[in-house]
Amino acid sequence: MEQYITVESNGKLRRLAKIMQRPSGDLLVSIFAGLNNGESTTDKVKDIHFSVHRSPNIPKGNMIKTTILSEESKAEGRAITSSIKGKEGFWNIAAYRYTDLEAGYYDFNSSADNFTLPYPFDTSKRTLILGFAVGDSDEEFDYSGDEFFTYTFKGTYFTLVLLVSTLNGPALPFGRFHVPTTLNPDAPPKGITEEQAYALMRGSAVEQCISRFRLATHWLLADYLERFASLAEMSLVSEEAKGDARWMTYASAKQLRNKLVDMASKPDIWAQMSRPAPVYAIRQRYAIRIIDANTKRVIRYC
Questions:
Q1: Is residue 189 one of the residues assigned to a domain?
Q2: Are 52 and 137 found together in one domain?
Q3: In which band, very low, low, confident or very high, does the pLDDT at 142 lie, cut at 50, 70 and 90?
Q4: Total structural domains in the chain?
Q5: How far apart, in Å, are the Cα atoms of 43 and each of 36, 47, 105, 174?
Q6: How far is residue 19's CA from residue 227's CA, in Å, rounded to a whole number?
Q7: What is this structure's pTM?
Q8: What 3-state class would DSSP assign to 208?
Q9: Is the pLDDT of residue 37 over 50?
């Protein structure tokens, strides 16, 4: 049993993820990614996937394994949740902020079963975020709000929920992955109580699951602004705009960068993002020269 998640982006059908149930009943979710992985903007990710295991050897828990494989590195993570066997609701597995969806590995030419998000998407104006949560197969994800779009995949042993959000700003050429962690309650790190460790493993009702996804989107938004602001500081525009260039000192660029990053902590961030990102406006209208405030010499063109 397998199903693709797709979206129509800029007139083309693009694949976002593939959900597959193994013969054992375990779930495997592959996320089609681009440039990603921390601070690197050149490390191409070959594969991002997570698997939800039945874990017969864990009486009250299920293991969730996450793998990020790139050309330069491999990262693996493991978490254990009690939400499934304990029928505690849903546990948020991961959230991913997508790229501009232009690369060839997003092409979808398969006749395989697919679910297409019910609205077309323009990555020059918006950035797509997908989240995933899991619960027992008997659980129902009853969400009637309009803040996020949700879709449920029913497996033999698990219910997998897809949560969809967007940022009102153009997609970057690299994405970002957000994964929660759990701790061993039998040997928690210093400063963490056993109860706090158990709390990280527990599932939650639909409302709290939505809240956790919202927090993940805030984290991905903060990273988005950080990267966008770094472009303002380092290399916003590759060519000088004809007849409308603006001088900007290194200090001014740094100030702009800090201002954008600070936006992420504001409670009205979604209202702020209802307009095109300030950096994007500058990027379209101006060529920026970074100059030394003392010597007035050009340090670099942006």
A1: yes
A2: yes
A3: very high
A4: 2
A5: 7, 12, 15, 10
A6: 30
A7: 0.75
A8: helix
A9: no
Question: Is 277 within a domain?
Answer: yes
Distance CA 83, CA 86 (A): 5
pLDDT tens, residue by residue, 280-291: 333 333 333 444
Give the separation between CA 78 and CA 34, rounded to whole angstroms.
23
Residue 68 phi/psi, 5-degree rounding, is -120, 115
What range defines the domain where residue 246 resides? 223-301
Same domain, 168 and 20: yes
CA distance 234 to 236: 7
Cβ–Cβ < 8 Å for 257, 234? no
Exposed, middle or buried by CB within 10 Å (0-12, 13-18, 19+), for 300?
exposed
Radius of gyration of the chain (CA): 21
SS3 (DSSP) at 251: helix
CA distances from 95 to 25, 129, 131, 189, 240 (A): 23, 7, 4, 25, 37
Helix, strand or coil, per DSSP, at residue 77: strand
Interior angle at CA 23, CA 21 and CA 24, nearest 5: 95
**DSSP secondary structure letter of residue 240:** P
Q: What is the pLDDT of residues 67-99, one digit of tens each?
A: 988 777 788 889 999 999 999 999 999 999 998
Q: Is the Cα dihedral 226, 10, 2, 85 positive or negative?
A: positive
Judge whether 61 and 201 are in contact, CB under 8 Å: yes
Q: Do both 276 and 160 map to the same domain?
A: no
Q: 84 with 155, same domain? A: yes
